[in-house]
Amino acid sequence: RTKHLIISSRGEHFRHSRNVQRVPASLPTSLHVNNLPTLPISLIYPSTDGRLDAAATPSRHHPTRPGRVAGPDPPRSWITLSSPKIMEADLADINSPAWREHALDLVFSPGNASVHPAGTSASIRSLQEGEFPTLALLSLHVIRMECSGYELAKIRPYIPPHLRRVLMRHSAIHCPLSQIELNAICGEEGHANGELVVVGPYATLRSDHFQRSRESVPEECATEESTWDSLETQGSEPSALFSLTLLSTPLRFPLSDLPPTITCLILINIPKPVSLQRLPLYCPLVSLLDLSYNSWLIPTSGEKLLQDYPWTKLRYLKVLGLRGCRVTSTLLSQVNRGRWDDVDVIH
Description:
This protein is of the alpha/beta class. 31% of the residues lie in helices and 7% in strands. It contains twelve helices and six strands. The protein has a six-stranded parallel β-sheet.
């Protein structure tokens, strides 16, 4: 009993001293938190002008962070500059990484379900301003910069298919693959985990590309002794091509060679006109079609071609990219005729 009296008296004395000092009875919990960011908040969550702006910074990163931090502003070399004038100058050059990233933004969007069908993993999205690249992306960047086409062909079996797809996407924006490097990454299947991205003038698809890919597929992917869950057959069955992206490169093969499994078809800045009238017959599952920045769709003949196109035959079409083209109300009505849900036209 004496022990409890001593403890209670000490507690009352402590609370009395805190009341006299007008200090809260309990210590703030923030003093015991050891996982708070150690870098200035303006470096972790930079705004467009390099200074912290709580109103402009999206709240999804850290909704409880303070509005201001103590200390001086970070050095200019630590801040990512993003001037609108610089962006406009980069977008004017179709061979710049900024323009390629802008042109491929629709197909590389992380929320695009057409590029990631069931059973496939979504690739790494493009980095936003102020974000640090992941370890996987840094490793792939080193491989891309240090390895030649011959070396890529040798190490290809050791790179998982989904990472080869990430490497293809990353290279399409920052350092397009040459013909030899593209063949080394795709291998005999002709694609990386169901996706193929070709950026010209660095690389072009051969006229017999899809025919050679079909011939390279073995007729029997598994023997009678092996089962579907055996380790010997895992990864032996090639995946189907579901996404084809051609950027600034000519179309040298007929549409009849396209596999019917394609759900995402991107034809951006194609130099010569492409006849797409029979596309629904060869690729009936297309849900994303991007025809942006094609000069042959800008004149009056191109507008008439879009209006007279049999859009109703593309029954699974959800997203239509027509950036750089003239989109009229008549064209929108033609695209959405007979549909329960309107097509999302990006222009």
